[in-house]
Design brief:
single chain, seven-stranded mixed beta sheet, 25% strand, Rossmann fold, alpha/beta, 213 residues
Length: 213
């Protein structure tokens, strides 16, 4: 299947809503969730960092501002989100590479990154693509490299409020329990995989994962 024939869920759910994506994420607490993920990842000034499902590139811009010497590559299947990411980076005069592609077939050499990050992307993947994507993340990490991921909790993990129940009616979250995510990480080759934190947000619970190669 060619890249153009692949289907994907746009960053904002629908292309029409893309201009509203960044302000809505900020309003709902996405900035604080992103800061928690970056603090957990402990990025070093000379790391090579890979962002899986980079969307409009906000996290990559934050990293590059904090660590100018870090090389960052973001990948996402949504060309419109990537176009917005490139414009945002250009406005800030930041050198960040944004590639179009899918997680289960990463166009990067084996053992080429120190850190891999992913923020609120994993639940978008069809169930049959999750394991292959994690295998690819494991492949491109160097020995001793780490994968840090945040995503919505599954409906089994924590009692949800009204907005959480609306969100969890989405079939994308039905297999997003911590037990399932960790099992997939270990099956993909990560010997050390764990849920290392959680936060409660207006839109529901957020889980934080760490997996080391």
């Amino acid at each position: 299947m060619t890249k153009s024939a692949r289907t994907y869920l746009p960053a904002a759910g629908r292309d029409l809503f893309l201009p509203l994506y960044d302000p809505i994420v900020k309003l709902l607490g996405g900035g604080a969730a992103r800061e928690s993920l970056l603090a957990q990842a402990r990025i070093r000034p000379t790391d090579r960092v890979f962002d899986l499902g980079c969307g409009t590139g906000t996290m990559d811009i934050v990293i590059k501002k904090q660590f100018p010497g870090v090389e960052i590559i973001g990948i996402d299947p949504d060309p419109r989100a990537l176009a917005r990411a490139r414009k945002k980076a250009a406005r800030e005069a930041l050198a960040i590479q944004f590639d179009q592609g899918f997680g289960e077939q990463l166009p990067y050499p084996t053992a080429s990154f120190d850190r891999a990050l992913s923020s609120f992307m994993f639940h978008h993947l069809p169930a049959e693509e999750k394991l292959n994507t994690l295998r690819e993340v494991h492949r491109v990490l160097k020995l001793g490299g780490e994968f840090h991921m945040s995503d919505f909790e599954g409906p089994e993990d924590h009692e949800q409020g009204f907005f959480g129940r609306l969100l969890h009616s989405n079939h994308h979250l039905k297999d997003n329990s911590a037990a399932n995510v960790i099992a997939l990480m270990k099956e993909a080759g990560f010997g050390d995989a764990a849920k290392v934190g959680r936060q409660s947000k207006l839109f529901g619970g957020v889980a934080y994962y760490r997996a080391a190669k």
